[in-house]
């Protein structure tokens, strides 16, 4: 049994995950305009594809993916997170994406097993 | 090393010097030992009043000197860097001059061989939800949305919720808490979350608060640390 995995395999690498998530969001909502009827589908698609891509990375992590889709209407939005975990092994990243009518904020938290 | 630790007290030095002077064979040349203090008998028998500084000090050969190693018989040269880390009055000292320090002990945590939480020690979604709801209601009641203050409010809420949950959460659980605060306008918003976790040990809960000017969504995940 391999008891000494390389450092890369057991730490949360932000860049890799950012790329994965951005692709997932682009492929789902790309150039679409905000449509209330489509929202459920978009959300499920973004979150599921993100999670499946993260799983494919094959790292010993538990993931939490949160997605917020907000219609651009001039209203303000704030989001904050606080975590009780091990700083050396766990991490998070937040990806903001927008187009003309939609704001999309995806947060990924990775907790080492 | 520019700053030396405190010099030896004069009494200590004088005492040591006197004891050295009374020893047989003390008239011979001092032992030269690296990292040690050696004393020299002087031709003049007078107490030494000057404070002891180990570097950059040149002493006329005729004077008594309580100096470091590499003392030549006639002249003190401080060409060699000499460190006395840890010299201070009252510290433990051996007469080789080395300061005895406690070795830094690394903390080793034993393997508990535990693969799951104890029965009754699971993350309770219902209890967490109650706490979350109570916190949001009490904190946000009557609060109006303001772009300047709400970012701080959001951060404070996240920390507050985490600190409350830390007290009640079972051991070996990691917590991730996310708070979304927004202005109540006519826009549509949806918050969704999906996670890759072990359903037998992990869980999550979410709570929504809304008033006339703002809304808040709090999301908490509890993950067991195997």
Automatic annotation (TrEMBL), chain A:
CDD domains per the UniProt record, alphabetical: DLC-like_DYNLT1
UniProt entry tagged with the keyword Transferase: no
Biological processes, Gene Ontology terms: microtubule-based movement
Signal peptide start-end: none
Keyword tags: Cytoplasm, Cytoskeleton, Dynein, Microtubule, Motor protein
GO molecular function, one term: dynein intermediate chain binding
Localisation per UniProt entry: Cytoplasm, Cytoskeleton
Pfam families recorded: Tctex-1
GO cellular component: cytoplasm; cytoplasmic dynein complex; microtubule
Gene3D superfamilies per the UniProt record, alphabetical: Tctex-1
Keyword Repressor: no
InterPro entries per the UniProt record, alphabetical: Tctex-1-like, Tctex-1-like_sf
Family as reported in the entry's similarity comment: Belongs to the dynein light chain Tctex-type family.
Protein's UniProt name: Dynein light chain Tctex-type 1
Source organism per UniProt: Carassius auratus (Goldfish)
Encoding gene (name): LOC113117386
From TrEMBL, chain B:
Superkingdom, taxonomy of origin: Eukaryota
Single GO term (MF): dynein intermediate chain binding
Example of a GO cellular component annotation carried by this entry: cytoplasm
GO biological process: microtubule-based movement
Signal peptide start and end residues: none
Residue ranges, annotated region (Disordered): 1-52
Biased composition (Polar residues): 1-20
PANTHER family given in the database record: DYNEIN LIGHT CHAIN TCTEX-TYPE 4, T-COMPLEX-ASSOCIATED-TESTIS-EXPRESSED 1/ DYNEIN LIGHT CHAIN
UniProt similarity note: Belongs to the dynein light chain Tctex-type family.
Name assigned to this protein: Tctex1 domain-containing protein 4-like
Organism: Carassius auratus (Goldfish)
């Amino acid at each position: 049994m391999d008891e000494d995995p390389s450092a890369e395999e057991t730490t949360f690498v932000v860049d890799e995950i950012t790329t994965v998530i951005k692709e997932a969001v682009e492929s789902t909502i790309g150039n679409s305009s905000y449509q209330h009827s489509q929202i459920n589908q978009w959300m499920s698609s973004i979150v599921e594809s993100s999670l499946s891509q993260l799983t494919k990375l094959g790292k010993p992590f538990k993931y939490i993916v949160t997605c917020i889709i907000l219609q651009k209407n001039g209203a303000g939005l704030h989001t904050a997170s606080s975590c009780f975990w091990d700083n050396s092994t766990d991490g998070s990243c937040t990806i903001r994406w927008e187009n003309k009518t939609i704001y999309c904020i995806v947060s990924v938290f990775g907790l080492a097993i | 090393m520019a700053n030396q630790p405190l010099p030896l007290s004069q009494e200590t030095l004088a005492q040591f010097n006197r004891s050295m002077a009374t020893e047989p064979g003390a008239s011979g040349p001092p032992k030269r030992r690296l990292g040690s203090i050696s004393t020299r008998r002087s031709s003049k028998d007078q107490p030494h009043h000057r404070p002891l500084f180990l570097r950059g000090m040149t002493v006329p050969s005729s004077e008594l000197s309580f100096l470091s190693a590499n003392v030549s018989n006639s002249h003190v040269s401080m060409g060699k860097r000499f460190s006395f880390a840890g010299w201070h009055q009252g510290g433990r000292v051996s007469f080789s001059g080395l300061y005895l320090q406690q070795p830094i002990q690394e903390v080793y945590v034993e393997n508990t061989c535990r693969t799951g939480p104890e029965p009754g020690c699971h993350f309770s979604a219902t209890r967490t939800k109650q706490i979350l709801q109570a916190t949001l209601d009490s904190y946000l009641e009557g609060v109006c949305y303001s772009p300047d203050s709400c970012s701080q409010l959001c951060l404070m809420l996240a920390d507050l919720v985490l600190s409350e949950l830390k007290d009640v959460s079972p051991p070996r659980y990691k917590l991730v808490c996310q708070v979304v605060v927004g202005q109540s306008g006519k826009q549509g918003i949806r918050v969704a979350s999906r996670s890759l976790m072990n359903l037998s040990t992990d869980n999550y809960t979410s709570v929504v608060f809304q008033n006339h000017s703002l809304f808040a969504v709090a999301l908490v995940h509890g993950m067991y640390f195997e």
